[in-house]
Amino acid sequence: MALFSQDALNPGVRKREVFGWAMYDFANSGYTTVVLTAVFSAYFVGGVAGGADWATFAWTAALAAASVIVMLTMPAIGAYADLRAAKKRLLVLTTIGCVLGTAALAGAGPGDVAWAVVAIVLSNVFYTYGESLIAAFLPELARQDSLGRVSGWGWSFGYFGGMLTLGLSLAYVLWAQARGIPAAQFVPVTMGITAGIYGVAAIATFALLRERALPQPVPLHDGLREAGLRASLARLRATGQQARRFRDFSALLACAVAYQAGISVVIALSAVYAEQVMKFEQTQTMALIFLVNIAAAIGAFSWGYVQDRIGHRLALGITLAGWIVMIALAVAATGPGLFWVAAVIAGLCMGSSQSAGRALAGLFAPAARRAEFFGIWTFAIRLSAIIGPLTYGLVTLLTAGNHRLAILSTGAFFVLGLALLMGVDVARGQAAAETADAADRGAPER
Question: Which of 178, 221, 285, 326 is 20 to 30 Å from the Cα of 291, by its Cα?
Answer without folding.
Answer: 178
